[in-house]
## 1
Amino acid sequence: MSILSKTTVMAPPIVTYRGTVYPWHCDHMGHMNVMWYVGKFDEATWQLLASIGLSRARLRDEGIGMAAVEQHIEYKRELFAGDLLTIRSTVQEVREKALIFLHEMINQETDELAARTVLTAVCIDRTTRKAKPLPSDIRDRFVSTSPTTADQ
């Protein structure tokens, strides 16, 4: 296994989203509907990707994309209209062609975890729609600052 095949990352989380729950985000149960959790996590994803060097401009200019291929969500606490929330995110693992990252949605008033998701995103060539290696500078950034699985 090459060092670039899998690198576990121990980066501290960064804030990737701040927002509020609006009444139209709530369903007949009175709490924020699951579709809005996914949407807010998606917004956080684009902030996280940009923060590690995969900005919209770079993706466009290099003809690459990031495709979510797996997502696991845990709903921990309900959110209601008027609640303020923050999402903190971190990259957990870097593979040759994929990133695994974590988002945690926090109720700002109570500081309670409302939801958590772990996503796997694969780097793709936007023309062929096939997986391709992440740009080397992105992999190198994590390899140079993180222990590899072989070191653990």
Note: The chain has three helices and six strands.
## 2
Amino acid sequence: MVVEQESHTKEKRYVESGDRIRKARLYKGLRRDELADAIHCSSGLIASMEQGVRALRYENAVSIASICGVRVEWLFTGAGHMTDKEAVRSIIGQMQNLDVMWTEFLRHVALIAGYTMQEVDRSSASPADVHSPYLRFVKDGDAKSLSMREVNVFISEVEQHSGLALQMLFDRKKGG
């Protein structure tokens, strides 16, 4: 029974890696014989690996990944993204989500202090701050425009006036 399960798991892994080999080959627009020539093996070996009959060895995974422009980790294990381009897109999407969450956090901090928050046009920002969005906090006609570096000071001011421990949350956001 255990041997049967191990055999089934092994076959499943071979088939899954074979599917990834085929996807990688097609992503590059290669026929089996072209991929085989590029990695110095027979087209029969490529066919056997794609069909899940033969295991994908790590050395072959490295060669195929290099030729096809896919990530070795994905080809060999199925983990992660197929290409670096997909991985970068995913990271950018995650960063954008964090920026949205951070902006919402700051909006709540401003509300606690009785301010409203607005993003400000960065076209007049100094070269050192061009990558940091400026924020304007407005309360009773008093406006404070802050770079992201100055937000830390603002949070401390809010903390002093409201008695809340916001600095700890800010430090977590910075990773410190």
Note: The longest helix spans residues 84-112.
## 3
Amino acid sequence: MQPEYSLGSLKSALLFASLSDEEITCFHNAAQPRSYKKGKILYLQGEPAENFYVICSGWIKLFHTMPEGEEVIVDMLTSGHIVGESAIFDHDCYTSSAQVVSAVQLLSIPLKVLKERISLSPKFAFNMLTSMSRHHRRHYGAMALNAMQSAPQRIGCFLLSLCAPPPKTKRGLLFFLCPMIKV
């Protein structure tokens, strides 16, 4: 039996947003719930990919390891995001590494289910392209900011992105929950 959060998590992900209940059920039936603690490496760049993941709660860091061994953070993702799906366009290998930075609940879905749905549904294929386009647009924006901002400015922008907009009737303090601790 699937946890009750799983169907809602699928519906909240952009990739599945405009699918029918029948199409979402196809993914839901193939999904395996997973929970991991902070520090778990979900997958490494270049590894053969069998699954992609829908984040139900928690945070995952996507990163690349440079030839010199330095780690470059590509993105920080939370509930409603999908990771590992781009492997279907890169010889079924993961295009980045993924590590849990705060305890996560995920849905692990076989990539073969994703491939089947793409081949059966032009609408789903278009959703996939839309989702990936938005993801890449966000990355290009982040790359531009990284080139122009200092480290404290980038951290400030990340922290502000964690804040929910205040209600229109209230002004004042904003609160956020930081997903990781740097020691």
Note: The domain at 5-121 is CATH 2.60.120.10 (Jelly Rolls).
## 4
Amino acid sequence: MKARFSVQFLLLLISVTALGYIGWVVSDQIVYRQRAQPIPFRHDMHAGKRKIACVYCHRGVYQGYQAGVPSVRECWACHRAMPKLLKDPKKYPGVTTLQQYWEAKKPIVWWKVYQLPDHVHFQHETHVARGIACTVCHGDVAAMPVVRQAHNPTMGWCVTCHRQQHAPVSCSTCHY
């Protein structure tokens, strides 16, 4: 009876360990998976060709945790002033979709490209105040037709950068 209990306990322990390992391996893929956005927003056109600064649309970087995205009203304020974009919906399908959101008075629900776990607190404000360029974490977004993660923001990746920048690396810097 005792040997049978030991074997069952050992099998349970192996199963739990294996499931934990599998969860750890695939967690980055689950948390950081890329999703299609509701509008095919072209960062290469806006930030690249048009040279619109990141902070023009992502004003939240000055206020804390999330960079944020502009409202439909803010997007439409620029795009309604460009009639050639509205005349050719096949060439500019994103603008047509934006117009539909505007007319329906519905917000655009964008998917976050960088979704950090709940126990991590990243402050854009702190990084911007220290003069760290957006491209350090986000890559050359101005060259990306579709924004994707330039880096997988793991704890190791962030700590390496903090050490290179002589920034704090204590646990309470990001976990509080």
Note: The chain is about 50% helix and 0% strand.
